[in-house]
């Protein structure tokens, strides 16, 4: 088979500042809102809209995005789990946000904003806010990539990616605090099957105390393959063929083993690129008077473009939850369909309205 470019995405989720870890996801999430705020400020100034309203708009947007996305994930994807662990619903920093939930919450919050603050039509504000939402979506998907989450199916492609963080977390959980670090090093070797090529990695485990390695080694000898491959195929990140060598002790606190990374579509980056193009399209379209005059048109285009693309990119993604395995369309696709239909309505309606008048 052909040789492919493999992107190895590291295990770190953030920057360790000693007293605090600055997570890449949080940083990118905030950056999306900051840049979106600057775009909206330019729009407000151009239309002589009070900037005090913009500060209030930011508050509405942040609350709606976080609350809506979190509740969307809880109810659409993992209610069985969260119904038994209600307090974890508030642990947003642990991950678990759904863009469809954010979309519904943003629309509702902007309705309240239009009534209580701007006193303008809700479509007026939606036509402008969706420009910044598309921009924020770019950074949120980059954050998902940083978190090694919402990745694609197993595939050899020109941009295949091996995500290392899930494997590190599996090892940390198994060793229950006895692990100081895990390092991954591509060896350049590959394991080739009839359908896939898997790049090999040297995995070095450093334990927390001298002398503990013997204990850890004995614990890892038999179950190492199952530790790293116990997930279903949708979420497997490393593979160990039957002839893989067992972990070897190479120092008083160090173990070395070898595994083959599972290459996947980096769908987070694909989505981020698409959302950037959608942002540019909406931003440029906004400054065209003919488009701006058709109230609701930009909002409709946003829904059709973003969630239409979301429907099709789902075919490249690994299922997020187990119940999706038996579905003709996964949850993300089912939730995208009504939003696309609503978008089509707002695109077509102005033309019918103009013809009648």
Summarize the structure.
With 357 residues, the chain is an alpha+beta fold. Helix content is 54%, strand content 15%.
Give a written overview of the molecule.
The chain is of the alpha+beta class. It folds into two domains: 15-152 and 266-356, no CATH class; 162-261. The chain has helices at residues 24-46, 51-76, 79-82, 99-118, 122-146, 165-175, 213-221, 224-229, 267-286, 289-293, 297-313, 331-356; strands at residues 6-9, 14-16, 21-23, 160-163, 179-192, 197-207, 238-239, 248-251, 254-261. Strands 5, 6, 7, 8 and 9 form a five-stranded antiparallel beta sheet that branches. It has a two-stranded parallel sheet with strand order 1-4. The model has no long low-confidence stretch (mean pLDDT 84).
Question: Could you spell the SSE succession in H and E letters?
Answer: EEEHHHHHEHEEHHEEEHHHH
Low-confidence stretches: none
Report the C-alpha radius of gyration, rounded: 24 Å
General form: elongated
- Please give the domain count: 2
How many β-strand stretches?
9
Main sheet?
5 strands, antiparallel
Query: Gap between N and C termini, in Å?
Result: 63 Å
* Alpha-beta classification: alpha+beta
Which range best describes the helical content: under 10%, 10-25%, 25-40%, 40-55%, 55-70% or over 70%? 40-55%
Instruction: Give the overall average pLDDT.
Output: 84
Beta-strand fraction estimate: 5-15%
Tally of contiguous helical segments: 12
